Amino acid sequence: MIERQLLVDNKLGLHARATAKLVQALAPYRCNATLTAKGREVNAKSIMGVMLLAAGHGTPVVLRVDGEDESAAAQAVSALFERRFDEES
């Protein structure tokens, strides 16, 4: 299992478009993935689950991935957060 602390640093937070990008980034991977924020843990491969976090700008989140391709999945999600979901220049 890999656990990473991430920060929602894009202006709009985990809104619909950012959440869709996150779920699409995780789709090819077979591992299980969860996100935890504000005391709530959700399936990171579920658009509705991630939207329920209501994680706005500046919200710290914990990504947990567990499975055969966990390292690649964790890297893909970390890179997406670092790029601020490709929303800002």
Automatic annotation (TrEMBL):
InterPro entries per record: HPr, HPr-like, HPr-like_sf, PTS_HPr_His_P_site, PTS_HPr_Ser_P_site
Subcellular location: Cytoplasm
Domain of life: Bacteria
One Pfam family cited in the UniProt record for this chain: PTS-HPr
Domain HPr: 1-88
Keyword RNA-binding: no
Alphabetical UniProt keywords: Cytoplasm, Phosphotransferase system
Recorded family membership: Belongs to the HPr family.
Identification of the protein by name: HPr family phosphocarrier protein
Organism: Luteimonas notoginsengisoli
Lineage, opening ranks: Bacteria, Pseudomonadati, Pseudomonadota, Gammaproteobacteria, Lysobacterales
